[in-house]
Automatic annotation (TrEMBL):
Keyword match Transmembrane: yes
Superkingdom: Archaea
Organism this protein belongs to: Haloferax lucentense (strain DSM 14919 / JCM 9276 / NCIMB 13854 / Aa 2.2) (Haloferax alicantei)
Low complexity bias spans: 224-235
Name the record gives this protein: YdbS-like PH domain-containing protein
Chain residue ranges for the region called Disordered: 217-286
Length: 286
């Protein structure tokens, strides 16, 4: 089951839309006072259908399982797990409600030019759709930091996984918009190349500076381990001695085996010669 309460919040936003759309669709004539109305019952029907869509998606997201902890590789351990905040997305959707109400009021209760309620209603619908979608997306997104990778996982209908190996990371960038600053949120981007390349964007998390610091510490730790592993090779090259390799070791073992075999053959030949020299003496004595 997903974290948070997506079914509850989708019902809070969706049910009023369904009720308002059904009411406006059935009583357009009464609202206009018997005079020709500039709106049609289809507008209320569209609002009701949109509310039903919000309800259905919210309940679906509620029962979708959030991504599990990624499977660790050899010598890999989990350092930190973060989830995007949901508060800012809900606030964005809530701010759209006055705009939607204003658009409905201008459309059904006044005789203002049609472009005025259209602008108000369209702006509110855009803001509301972006906020509720971001809420669903944040509910189903998980960010994981290990000592080898930074992983972003998002599960909706299928699982989407994006990761950047720390050994290939070339930059850590922190950003924070004015809206995110109101809620203490921020974004951290880990890039695998100077010109972009593969990027993991850790978006809308609390205390982004701490997460970015953890990524930098893991990068420093990995660099130190790589440098320590390369020190014996560098010293051997500086002294003019080739570093040992698996092929050299195998060749050395074959040389030792060949030497031992040759020594054994020589010993056997000497023993046969001594035996041959002793044979005539034995015959003469007899």
């Amino acid at each position: 089951m997903a974290r948070g309460l997506p079914a509850l919040w989708s019902s809070v936003f969706g049910l009023p839309l369904v009720a308002a759309g059904a009411y406006l669709s059935g009583f357009v004539a009464e609202l206009s006072g018997g005079s020709p109305s500039q709106s049609s019952p289809a507008a209320g029907l569209i609002i009701a259908v949109f509310g039903l869509f919000i309800l259905a998606m919210g309940w679906y997201v509620h029962f979708v399982t959030a991504p599990e902890t990624p499977q660790m590789r050899a010598d890999e351990h989990l350092v930190e797990t973060r989830n995007p905040a949901q508060r800012s997305a809900l606030a964005e959707a809530a701010l759209a409600v006055p705009l939607l109400s204003l658009g409905g009021y201008l459309l059904y209760f006044t005789h203002r030019p049609l472009y005025q309620p259209t602008i108000a209603f369209g702006g509110g619908l855009l803001l509301f759709s972006r906020g509720i979608y971001r809420y669903w997306q944040n509910t189903l997104t998980t960010y994981s930091l290990t000592n080898q990778r930074v992983i972003e996982e998002y599960r909706f209908i299928s699982l989407l996984r994006n990761e950047v190996p720390l050994e290939k990371a070339r930059g850590v960038e922190e950003t924070r918009s004015a809206w995110d600053s109101l809620f203490g949120l921020g974004n951290v981007r880990i890039r695998s190349g100077a010109s972009g390349g593969l990027t993991v964007a850790v978006e809308q998390v609390y205390d982004p500076a701490d997460f970015a610091g953890q990524v930098r510490r893991e990068l420093s730790s990995g660099s130190e381990q790589t440098a320590a592993a390369q020190e014996p090779t560098a010293e051997a090259r500086a002294d003019g001695v080739a570093p040992p390799s698996a092929d050299a070791g195998a060749e050395r073992e074959r040389s030792v085996d060949s030497t031992e075999s040759a020594t054994g053959d020589a010993t056997d030949s000497e023993s046969e010669a001594v035996s041959a020299d002793r044979s005539p003496d034995t015959d003469e004595t007899a």
